[in-house]
Amino acid sequence: MIDQLTVFYVVPAIKNPKIIVDHHEYLINRKDYAGRTMWLCAKYSKIRCKSRIITYGKTVKIMSSHNHSPMRIDISNAVTQRVTILRNN
């Protein structure tokens, strides 16, 4: 399923940037040689949430769903970006 031009938020940081998609926060996991960046749910270490996303260019691919409710996140210092979101169902 494709969501055209969905807004997501980037919380810039030098060491630990974050992405917020659908009220869920993701932390950077790794980058590959093809320019893709893999992200893990911020709740992975606490409750083993398996949700992951991959970003490349202006595309965000959501690989799996969360095992918890969306979080309340402060987006006051976040930067808004319009992207295309691809969802694996």
From TrEMBL:
Species for this entry = Dendroctonus ponderosae
Q: Which InterPro entries does the record cross-reference, listed alphabetically?
A: Znf_FLYWCH
Q: What is this protein called?
A: FLYWCH-type domain-containing protein
Name the Pfam families on file. FLYWCH (PF04500)
Keywords for the protein's UniProt record, in alphabetical order: Metal-binding, Zinc, Zinc-finger
Q: Name one GO molecular function term.
A: zinc ion binding
Domain FLYWCH-type, which positions? 15-68
Which Gene3D superfamilies does this one have? 2.20.25.240
